[in-house]
Every structure is written in C-alpha cells, then in structure tokens.
Amino acid sequence: MPNEAANQEQNFLVDLLRATYQNQEVYPILQHNLSKLNDDLALMLRKWVSERFAKEPAIAINLARVIIKLSSIIQEFEQGKLASNLEIAIAGYETVLPIVTHEDFPKEWDIVQQALVTAYQQRQQIFSITISELREQTIQTQSQINTLTEQLQEELKQAKLQVNDLKTTITQLKQEVSSSKSTQEITFLIAELEELKQRQIRVEQFTSMAHVSPKIEHFNTAIFYDIENLTMGRSNPNFNFSLRQIQTNLENTSLVNKIAIQCAYADWSDSRLRLLKNEIQELGIEAIQIFDYSHKRNAADMQLAIDIMEFAQSRPTLQVFVIVSGDGAFAALAKKLHEYGKTVIGCAYEGQINRVLKSVCDRFIPIPAPEAKIKEIVIASKI
To answer: Which CATH architecture has domain 220-382?
Structure first.
C-alpha cells in the first residue's frame, strides 16, 4: 500500500508538470485533488526533481522553468491547506536553485529569489497565527481546569462537613440506644461514611492532578547530517555508522523535545551511498542532493550552512540545531546561531571533531570511531 500511495503521488506530480508545460489550466486539477496537496507531495517533488536533474542534466534548465511556473501557481492557490500549498511551492523553488544560478540564468535566478522571500514571509505569518491559536487554546484549557478545580474543592469541603456530621451522629446513636433497629441504622450510616471517605479520596486525587501543568511537547529540533564527514571522505568511504543510533542518542538528551526536520547532504548520485537509502527513508531524513561542481569548495557544507540560517530566521519554534559533522568550518556557524538565541549540539566521531567547534557547542555527543578506519590509521602510522 505505501508503494501504491507513492506511485499515485508521483503520477499526480507528473500530471501537474505536464499541464504546466503545455499551458493548460492547472487550477481544475488542483481543485479535484485537494487531499493530495500535502507535505508528502513537497517531499516527493524534492526527491523526484533531484533524481531527474541527476539523470538528465541536458533538460535541467527547461524542467527548472516549468517547476518555477508550477510553484508560483500553487503558491497563489487559495483552496485546501494554505500551509501545505506554501511548503510545496517552497520545495519547488529550492530544488531549482542548484540549476538556476545567478551567473548562468540571472533572470530566472532573480524570479526564484523574489518568490522565496515572499514565500518565507507568508510561512512566517502562518506560523505566527498558529502559535497565537495554540496559546489561546492553552489559556482556555487552563481556565477550564481552574474552574473545575474550584468546583471540586467546594465539593470536597462539603464532603468533609458531611463526614463530620455522620461521625457525630454515629457517636450519639452508640451512646443513646442499643436496640436492633438502632444497630441497623448505625450499620447503614457506617457504610455511607465509608462511601463518602472513598469519594473524598478520589476528589483529593483529582484536585492534586489538576494542579499539575500538562507537558506540552514541541517540535523544537532540526538535525543536519554532513554525510561526507560521516563516511570520512569519498575515495574510500566508511559506512560503519548508524544514523538510527545517532538519532536515538539525540532523542535521549534533555535538550531535544521532538525532531521537526532532518536533512542529509551528499551527492546522492554516487551509487555507493545506496547503502544508506533504507535507513534514511525509515528515519524520515530528507536527502538533499548536492551537485559539487568544484573540488576546491565543499558544496554540501555551504548548502548545509545556508539552510541552517534560513531555518533559524524563518522558524521560531526551532530552538535546537544539531550539526552532525566534525568540520571546524562550522564553528562560526554555531556562534552565529547563538546570536539568534539557538542551542547548538555537535555530533561527530570521537577524537576527530575540531576542538574549536566542540568548545562552542552547547553539548557534544560523540560517535564511536569506526574500527575499520582505526586499523587503517594504525597500520599507516607503523609504515
């Protein structure tokens, strides 16, 4: 069933791109498929476009122009969930950035940049409205709890008075009479007294629970994986690490509440990285395709830093940023995140993280160094 749903989403995406390319009316297609305009379609768009760019670079710019046009249409579409429509449009704009560069296609680059600025501002407005609504709901819920607590306290007070009255009555009856009729009455009153005591206990328990503020969990964390750093280079990549274990170790820290975003940066056209495919999909990590056009500059590190700063500015609910890399170049990025009031967690191999990066992180979570690589280093040192 999951594969069937994914195929349906991909077919829907292809239909939209085809209609856009042929200058057909796209709005009717969107209106008949409102349920498919969701975050899954945004993820499908990123994945599908990255794969097409890698497989067919000759048509990349023409496909990019179609995606820009479709993203603009969906951004202006006012039906369905506006937040989901906006995420789909942003996904389209961001996926064409590696192709639509300022040097080669300045006109298209300028259109995309202006569209992204508008989209980010719209997303910020939606976030602000959502946060305000959540705060209002929290205030209303707390008010209801306070009202119920006052009612229960009053009921508890009345129950205590009834218990005292019953105790007094029972004492008087024991002193005055010893007839069978009075004994039955006393037995009945004793049973009623026990029932009131149980009721009193339940009311006290509920009252104490009502004063405990419920824990509200937030998606406050974003994780960014530098895959080339984890594989320890391209010439002889190491795969003796577990992304699942890294995620588990992060979730066990007190700083991480819930994980909102996970991005892994690499040239995924490298067939050797297929070993990570299943684990990435199971953990919900978004594979960010990087076209490394220069051997002197690490395009993955640059894109990772750009995305982190964009998220830091546009998503106020993200408070914890995790950088899974030991590259010292990220030390300046960590300092900049601190200026925005964000918490930074570093995660890298033991003994191979840059000491400056480690010192500026609020917390460092080590990854056990791969045994295979350790043996290679020892052998090389002996030679």
So the answer is: 3-Layer(aba) Sandwich (3.40)
